[in-house]
UniProtKB/TrEMBL annotation, chain A:
Domain named Activator of Hsp90 ATPase homologue 1/2-like C-terminal: residues: 21-153
Protein name listed in UniProt: SRPBCC domain-containing protein
Species this protein is from: Tunturiibacter gelidiferens
Family per similarity comment: Belongs to the AHA1 family.
Name of one Pfam family that matches: AHSA1
Entries under SUPFAM superfamilies matching the protein: Bet v1-like
Automatic annotation (TrEMBL), chain B:
Gene Ontology molecular function: any one: DNA-binding transcription factor activity
Signal peptide: none
Taxon lineage: Bacteria, Pseudomonadati, Acidobacteriota, Terriglobia, Terriglobales
InterPro entries in UniProt: ArsR-like_HTH, HTH_ArsR_DNA-bd_dom, WH-like_DNA-bd_sf, WH_DNA-bd_sf
Organism whose genome encodes this protein: Tunturiibacter lichenicola
Alphabetized UniProt keyword annotations: DNA-binding
Protein name as catalogued: DNA-binding transcriptional ArsR family regulator
Source domain of life: Bacteria
PROSITE patterns assigned to the protein according to its UniProt record, in alphabetical order: HTH_ARSR_2
Keyword DNA-binding among record annotations: yes
Length: 154, 112
């Protein structure tokens, strides 16, 4: 399996890449179809996404809500800016903790790579401070809740 | 997780990142660190203080010199945090592998 990479670029970007053994079309659908998103965008065991509203068209809004079933939860809202089936999605999103974080501009591309697909996510934050905060606290709260609850990893 | 806010905030400055990059090559004095920048020594010292308070660099006393070097523990704490983030995202994408495999199967079924 190919490794995921996560790195910062310049002052305001965060870049994530991952290769998948599936065509770009499948990746695109898994990122825009609520039923599919609810199957994988979950974080650690015990977390689920009971609300997944996704209007995948330019100007369309989305809202994802996560819960651990024990009273903890948070949500993300966003808008689609561009959708080029099946290669590119551009959207903005913010996390509500419960106060909204500054907008994260996200460009996701799915490029055919042999039999599979190379996914590249390019996040752009408004400034260095926001990126630093996102890496240190925004992701800590949001993604930690979603993905990296320490106890879930040990 | 202690002090991660301070550490990432300390990194949110190009001069301080350049200082860390320089120190990754080895110990350096304030003068040596100031040289590549068009900045006064007090300004550099201020950046060094921020990095030191964040636990990312340490100083050693050598006569009148105070050479700085990277603080392994502080750097390691950030690295561990980013590692967790990576692991977390990887978990989602491992699940996505499964979802994609199911999509493929369905598609092939439809094409038959």
């Amino acid at each position: 399996m190919s490794k995921m990479t996560l790195k910062t670029e310049g002052d305001t970007h965060v870049i994530v890449t991952r290769r998948f053994d599936a065509p770009p079309e499948a990746l695109y659908r898994a990122h825009t179809d609520p039923k599919l998103l609810q199957k994988w965008l979950l974080g650690p065991e015990g977390w689920s996404m009971p609300v997944c509203i996704n209007d995948a068209k330019p100007g369309g809004k989305f809202r994802y809500e996560w819960t651990n079933g024990k009273g903890a939860g948070f949500h993300i809202t966003g808008e689609y800016l561009e959708l080029n089936p099946f290669n590119r999605i551009v959207h903005v999103e913010r996390m509500h903790l419960p106060d909204p974080t500054p907008d994260n501009h996200v460009e996701t591309t799915f490029d055919q790579d042999g039999e599979g697909t190379l996914m590249t996510i390019r996040m752009t934050l408004p400034d260095e401070k926001t990126r630093a905060t996102m890496l240190a606290t925004g992701m800590e709260h949001g993604m930690e809740a979603s993905y990296v609850r320490l106890e879930a990893m040990i | 997780m202690n002090g991660l806010d301070t550490k990432f905030s300390a990194l949110a400055d190009p001069t301080r990142r350049a200082i860390l990059a320089r120190l990754s090559l080895g110990e350096a004095t304030v003068n040596e660190l100031a040289r590549p920048f068009e900045m006064s020594q007090p300004a550099i010292s201020q950046h060094l203080k921020v990095l030191e308070d964040a636990g990312l660099i340490m100083r050693r006393v050598e006569g009148t010199k105070r050479p700085r070097r990277l603080a392994k523990e502080g750097i390691e704490a950030m690295n561990q945090w980013l590692g967790m983030l990576r692991t977390a995202l990887e978990k989602n994408y491992d699940r996505l592998d499964g979802v994609l495999a199911a999509i493929d199967t369905k598609k092939r079924g439809e094409m038959r």
